[in-house]
Design a protein that fits this description.
551 residues; alpha+beta; 16 helices
Length: 551
């Protein structure tokens, strides 16, 4: 099977070629205007398919189809926003040559308008699918799952690439090009407009039981979802999709430029895209993690419902997700499941189960969250992951009512002067073995007051659900200090991972954040805790491990 990939050595085309590297019997034509770049990609490619470089401009596609006679054309070039009146010339050439077509288009108008070729594609006996990428294919699949339990009303979503993902120049040209421009969407039940990259909101991507991303700043982007998804859900009144690239300081500079352009009706910012491209690809620091979310609010049996779907991708797996949709279509085709003839947006190309199969074996994790009014603190924060915890860990956290647990613990203390001072100020217990322990839990201001008694030495903290930048985190207050903690499930352990801290609401440097290995689990039918609190420049402050049973 011969596949012609326009932009085959670019970011998305190159990643697609690598995703197909285990498939025998494929010949990949790596095409583009820069033949040395195509040759360099082929020279470094490793995999079962045969790869061949080909110099090809999109205006010359018709002749190449006649000469090469591929079984499939994939357009991974762009930006599709810039093609104007000639935007569909590759599609038209494919229909004339009776060659099926897929593309990575992220331009809303381009994808929304592809169905004008539906009759021609059917007459030619081929499929033409546009927008075969995370937006709108993955988003559409998630919303179809949500629509099984509610009627969708208000939808928003976003993608947050890892700072190490690498963004192509054409993608940057597209994004910067529509910054400050009108973006078609649906608002209050009517067709409306937003302003590209000038509207923002914050969100925390938090797969249940996984370490969440930092709370991120998302800004409105012009993606196909905004136009192609509302017709599939007649009750949808609002839709908003954003991107949350980091570092945030550069993101906010682009926000300011977008607002300035819209306010003063300035020309396109596209000439600045090479500058942003260079700067963004130089500023690679922080966690090598990315994510995506889709949130929907609606109704079921006249009751309000809110669902969110979260995706976390670790390391180098995340950048491949946009190319996985076309990978899946090709694999299903080779397995005998060919897309139906006709031209259309690719919203129904895959289901969520198809993506789950693609994610299996990779460091990509997904999960749904549903608001649980009245639930106890830990079940709220952990969502579906709470039910995977050992029975005694669930028992300690499931109830929101006052309760007492008793047992014993071994306690160790830091030896340094600073460690002793901090431990004394907070009231941590003294060192000892087999010390009797009582922990009392009481509801307080929407959270819980934990009072620990180690052999008569008492100290307490207030735990609550985080808000704002601490969303999806457990916030524990010791005196004047708030520590925001992620609840992470690892095998049979509930691990507590510090993420942020503050004094009287003033954020403190993360580099000085107290840390340590802290977890809860079950052994021999008893609740087991192991707490370690240490800080940079201080070392161990206190550590205590022991067992509890309900009093």
């Amino acid at each position: 099977m011969k596949i012609l990939i326009l932009g085959g050595y670019g970011v998305f085309g190159g990643r697609l070629a690598r995703l197909l590297s285990d498939l025998h019997g494929l010949e990949l034509l790596i095409c583009g205007r820069n033949l040395p770049a195509a040759q360099a990609f082929c020279d470094t490619y490793s995999g079962a398919p045969t790869v061949r470089p080909l110099r090809l401009d999109r205006t010359e596609v018709a002749a190449a189809l006649t000469a090469e006679q591929p079984a499939l054309v994939i357009d991974a070039s762009g930006p599709f926003q810039d093609y104007g009146a000639q935007g569909y010339q590759v599609v038209e050439a494919c229909i004339a040559a009776r060659v099926p077509y897929l593309d990575f288009a992220d331009a809303a108008d381009f994808v929304f308008g592809i169905d004008r070729y539906d009759a021609q594609a059917k007459a030619a006996g081929i499929f033409v699918l546009s927008g075969v990428s995370s937006f709108p294919v993955l988003t559409a699949a998630v919303l179809r799952e949500m629509a099984k339990v509610m009627e969708l009303r208000v939808v928003d979503g976003g993608i947050a690439p890892s700072p190490y993902a690498g963004i192509g120049l054409n993608v940057m040209r597209a994004v910067v090009g529509y910054a400050g421009s009108p973006v078609k969407l649906r608002r209050h039940g009517q067709p409306g407009q937003g302003v590209g990259l000038a509207e923002s909101r914050r969100f925390t991507v938090a797969v249940p039981g996984r370490l969440p991303l930092r709370n991120l700043h998302f800004s409105l982007v012009d993606v196909p979802d905004l136009q192609v998804l509302p017709p599939e859900h007649p009750g949808m009144t609002d839709i908003w999709i954003g991107a949350g690239p980091v570092p945030e300081v550069l993101h906010r500079v682009l926000n300011l430029l977008a607002k300035t352009r819209a306010r003063f009706r300035l020309p396109s910012l596209e000439p600045l895209s090479p500058l942003f491209y260079r700067v963004l690809n130089l500023m690679k620091f922080g966690e090598h993690r990315g994510g995506m979310y889709v949130r929907a609010r609606g109704q079921h049996a006249s009751a309000p419902v809110e669902l969110t779907w979260h995706l976390l991708a670790e390391g180098d797996d995340g950048p491949y997700i946009p190319s996985m949709a076309i990978e899946a279509v090709i694999r299903k085709w080779l397995a005998g499941e060919r897309p139906a003839d006709g031209a259309r947006p690719a919203t129904h190309a895959l289901e969520l189960a198809d993506y789950e199969a693609l994610f299996a074996g990779r460091s990509i994790h997904t999960g749904f969250r549903r608001e649980q009014p009245g639930a106890a603190l830990y079940p709220q924060l952990l969502g579906t992951a709470f039910e995977t915890l050992p029975a005694q860990v669930q028992a300690l956290h499931r109830d929101a009512q006052p309760r007492h647990w008793r047992g014993q613990a071994d306690i160790r203390r830091g030896r340094g002067v600073l460690a002793r001072v901090v431990a004394a100020v907070i009231g941590f217990p003294k060192e000892g073995e087999a010390v009797p322990v009582t922990v009392s839990f009481a509801p307080e201001r929407g959270g819980e007051r934990w009072t620990r008694d180690f052999g008569g030495r008492r100290f307490s903290s207030w735990q609550r659900r985080g808000e704002g930048r601490n969303d999806a985190l457990l916030v524990e207050r010791f005196g004047l200090i708030d520590v925001a903690i992620a609840l992470v499930v690892e095998s049979d352990r509930l691990c507590l991972v510090p993420r942020r801290w503050s004094v009287l609401g003033v954020p403190l440097p993360t580099c000085l954040l107290p840390k340590g290995t802290t977890f809860e689990t079950e052994r021999d039918g008893q609740f087991v805790f192991d707490v370690e609190i240490a800080a940079p420049l201080i070392g161990l402050i206190v550590g205590y491990r022991g067992r509890l049973l309900p009093a």
